[in-house]
Each structure stands twice: as structure tokens, then as C-alpha cells.
Amino acid sequence: VQLVESGGGLVQPGGSLRLSCVVSGFRAEDYAMSWYRQAPGKGRKGVSCVSSDDGTTYYSNDVKGRFTISRDNAKNTVYLEMSSLKPDDTATYYCTAESWSGDYYRGQGTQVTVSS
Questions:
Q1: Which of 73, 72, 28, 96 lies closest to 81, judged by CA?
Q2: Engineered SS bond to 91: which of 5, 13, 25, 37, CB 3.0-4.6 Å?
Q3: Burial 47-78 (b: 16+ CB within 10 A, else e)
Q4: What are residue 4's phi and psi, to 5 degrees?
Q5: How confident is the model at residue 53, as a pLDDT?
Q6: Phi, psi dihedrals of residue 49, rounded to the nearest 5°
Q7: Is 116 exposed, middle or buried (0-12, 13-18, 19+ CB in 10 A)?
């Protein structure tokens, strides 16, 4: 089982990035797939989630309208499209997978830095 995030980097305020989470060892569509972030000195915070059953998406208030989560079942990959990025979005972003039976997996994270 493996979740591998990529796509992070340094971007100017107002810019965009697309994070990818490639899943292996299980089907991403069978799990609730989420993106969390953790800024230096702060706790982990949920950003977005896509449900396993009907694909319903959820967003935290501070990213709603700017971020979009999606899942490509053929590629077994989950994406987080981020636009209108702000310095407050700077954090390490983690992809996680949770099943109804209690299985939980997390990737190693990808760093996003928003700075001019």
C-alpha cells in the first residue's frame, strides 16, 4: 500500500498548483480520499475530501472556491487543484485514505510554499 504525493513547490501569491496523489495497493474509489495540510508550528488541518460512495466533495471554508479535489479512477489518482494561492496556504500537504472498516493510510507529503 502506498500513497505518493507530488506537485508541490514554490509559487507566487495568486498562482496555481496541482497536487497529485498516486495510490497503489488498493482502489482509491473504495476509500474516502482527503487532503490535509500542516504548516510549521501548527496542527494538521483538513482541506478537502471526496467520499467513496457517491463522490461527494467537501472543502474547508478557507479554501472553498479556490481548491478543487478530483479523482481519476482509471489512474487510481486523486488531485487537488489549487488556485488563487495565498501565503497562508503554505504548508506540507498530505494525501490520506480511510475506509469504512477503519483502514487508514497517509502519504509522505509534498511541500507547498506561497511567497513572492
A1: 72
A2: 37
A3: bbbbebeeeeeebeeebeeebebebeeeebbb
A4: -125, 115
A5: 83
A6: -150, 150
A7: exposed
